[in-house]
Amino acid sequence: MGCAQCEAMSKIQLGQALGQTSTDKRVDILRLIARTGSISQAARDAGVSYKAAWQAIDTLTNLARVALVEKVVGGAGGGGARLTPAGQQLLDTAQALEAARQQVLNGAGGAVSPAGLALRTSMRNQIPCMVSALQPKGRMVRVLMTLGRDDEGVSGAQQETPDSPLVSRITLESAELLGLHPGLPVLALFKATAVLVLPDQKGLAVADKNALPGNIQRIARAEDRTEADEYAVGLAGGMLIAGFGAAGAHLRRNSRVIACVDEAAVVIAR
User: Fold this and answer.
1) pTM above 0.85, yes or no
2) CATH label, 125-269, candidates 2.40.50.140, 2.40.110.10, 3.30.310.10, 3.40.50.300
3) Which single residue of 102, 103, 155, 190 has CA 20 to 30 Å from 231?
4) How far apart are CA 255 and CA 9, in angstroms?
5) What's the half-sphere exposure (Cβ side, CA atoms, 13 Å) at 250?
6) How far apart are alpha carbons 196 and 189 in whole angstroms?
7) CA separation, residue 62 to residues 13, 57, 67 (Å)
8) Which residues in the chain are classed under CATH 2.40.50.140?
9) pLDDT tens across 35-70, in order?
10) Residue 259 and residue 230 in contact, taking contact as beta carbons nearer than 8 Å
């Protein structure tokens, strides 16, 4: 191993690159590259496009701040790809973390939601959901989710809000890398500032926005009456989301409201 490789490995940002949960396919793609020696074959084995595989490599490389995959020139197959020493180190660390994670979760008896614990984010709204459908359109996918997850024993929320799914609009590559499919438990995240709380109006519909019905549970009044108040909105199933009303609206506690969230503002985590 050369001095340059030693220096690169000493600088690898393992915490940044492995900050996601093990269900993300990015580490799986690294593992498949190590096994097959080919990015295209790794993409096929992972069930994603060649473009999505490269996106995964680029994202991990950016997070690790060092090259993880290198091209191999020549050979019987005309060349291929392999992990750099830093890439192998990251893969080994990922496998060790997964083993430790499973040991902890097994000891918790399934009472812990790994997605929620793995995330440190400024997004205050973190809603357990179940993917109900995928609607591809060009390079984008609308991901329809029902509130609540069977693995957390809150599937009743799904029965109470069948006509109000939570929708996220993401790229096709992101959907592939997350391995999304109907019935998959996920976590939907969005910032409180992305939620506009409006008085409930029959038939209210806003293009490309989620419209979640609920009632106001708590209010944080703005000191300046011309600014927007912050509301905690109770949804079906007992879940709460934070959002802001229109400036000067001054809604009251227990008021029926609609929480509007742009589909593109909803992030999906596993």
Assistant:
1) no
2) 2.40.50.140
3) 155
4) 57
5) 5
6) 15
7) 9, 9, 8
8) 125-269
9) 999 999 999 999 888 888 888 888 888 778 888 999
10) no
Give CA–CA dist 131/184, Å, rounded. 5
Per residue in 128-178, pLDDT (tens digit) is 899 999 999 999 999 999 987 554 443 433 344 445 689 999 999 999 999
d(CA 125, CA 260): 13
Residue 163 in contact with residue 236, Cβ under 8 Å?
no
Burial 112-142, CB ≥16 within 10 A → b, else e: ebbbeebbeeebebbbbbbbbebeeeeeebb
- What CATH number does the domain located at 3-112 have? 1.10.10.10
Tell me how far the alpha carbon of residue 128 is from its chain's centroid.
11
Torsion on CA atoms 220, 225, 228, 231, rounded to nearest 10 = 20
